[in-house]
Design goal:
Length: 97
């Protein structure tokens, strides 16, 4: 059985008691903190791969706490983006005719 990285993060969070001792609000503060640290990396011209990874870990945990997954959120976002692009193409086409 292959365990995904997201599953490893969830298991890590479970073992550390994050799900039992935390909530969405406190997890969101961790996400915001990681975004701030990522912004510092970007502003300093540093390699941001580690900070992006840490942000993804916090997002995976937040998703799990709210009954979803990062994959499900990405799928929804991609579908929404494509729908918006199609809507814009249709609107531009109507304006041109």
């Amino acid at each position: 059985m292959i365990i995904s990285n997201a599953d490893k993060v969830i298991e890590f969070a479970r073992q550390k008691g994050i799900f039992a001792n935390s909530n969405s609000e406190s997890q969101m503060l961790k996400v915001v903190s990681e975004v701030g640290e990522l912004a510092q990396e970007v502003n300093n011209g540093e390699d941001m791969a580690t900070k992006l990874g840490e942000l993804l870990v916090e997002l995976i945990i937040l998703c799990y706490m709210n009954g979803t997954s990062l994959d499900a959120c990405l799928k929804w976002a991609c579908e929404k983006i494509n729908m918006n692009i199609c809507d814009r193409i249709i609107l531009v086409g109507r304006a041109a005719s």
